[in-house]
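Standup notes
- HV: blocked on the assembly model, inputs below
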Amino acid sequence: MDKEISQAVIRRMPRYYRYLGELIDAGVERISSGDLSSRMNVTASQIRQDLNNFGGFGQQGYGYNVKYLYDEIGKILGLGEKHSIIIIGAGNLGQALANYVEFEKFGFAITALFDINPALKGRQVRGIAIHMIEELEAFTKEHPVDIAALTLPKSKAEAMASQLAGLGITAIWNFAHVDLDLAGQNVLVENVHLSDSLMQLSYNIAKDKPRHAAPQ
Amino acid sequence: MDKEISQAVIRRMPRYYRYLGELIDAGVERISSGDLSSRMNVTASQIRQDLNNFGGFGQQGYGYNVKYLYDEIGKILGLGEKHSIIIIGAGNLGQALANYVEFEKFGFAITALFDINPALKGRQVRGIAIHMIEELEAFTKEHPVDIAALTLPKSKAEAMASQLAGLGITAIWNFAHVDLDLAGQNVLVENVHLSDSLMQLSYNIAKDKPRHAAPQ
């Protein structure tokens, strides 16, 4: 792919992938962009435009081959390759990620957790060992690491991200409440801000509320 | 606010709010859209456009009053009011959410967790009780619930969401790997798909990889 595709389009791709996966599970082999559109609650023209960024995949009036489209979107999303993930921070969130088997279905294998809490030393989550953070450098020398997930307090995330970059890790999945920006270090960062989505929900709650409640 | 504001604008608001909070912590009282723009890595015109949706808040050549803008965006996001949240599913993710003190800073108070696992009965997370799911109906009759967070397997999320809607809960923060759609039941849903962001990261990893590795 030589053309730069907008991140807005990319952000919609996992959703297509998820819906197509459900169609496969339901035994559907072929679907029109109109049917896909009403299921996904986006316009058919949006679907066609999005997929045209990657060359189309459909034929006018004939619809999409569900399995083919699913596989192609998977390739676009880089899911054809296995990715190994380490998790820095083995608290509840880190353990929740390690327990989430769904990720493996998509080729993401969690290979280790790291923490500073000595009480966690030697423990495992779903068979995945929790290491002490001192072992991080040795671990990265012996095992390939594609992605590091950070489930750390905000105050520690920035320094840890730099350390990871120094160890040659080039992709960070950041759950700390700060926008990590390591562009200068050639590291990809995906920030997940749970409170942002909560605020979006509370915006919609406030918006729907009548300004002046009717007297009872 | 009578004008409908696009969800894309709303999605950016929590990020403004986060950055402005950091500026306040750093003692900054006033900032130009240019300075805010370079910190946030968005264009100054985007910032002005976004804020103009709500009436502006700044004066040409004079910049924004940080604290005022922070408070106003907080109001827009509905953060002026307290929200009580219950968490359905007290596994690692549910417990991680209950442990996340940051939410309280924004007025979101987690008041209870619910689970089906009898081993969790009577336990607490940060002082918040884990109830058995049978107690849900009684609880919602006695306590106001603004938002229910679902940290359940996909297979159980849909039925639980309907049950919650039946109990009069009108906002769901959904972590199950499915797009809940309860529009017919007049329930607001915010879906959080952790694997979507992981896929976006893997797309960017794949994109940056050279197609043909140079010989070593």
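- HV (later): unblocked. DSSP finds nine helices and nine strands in chain B. The longest strand of chain B covers residues 108-115.
- Next: hand off to the docking folks.
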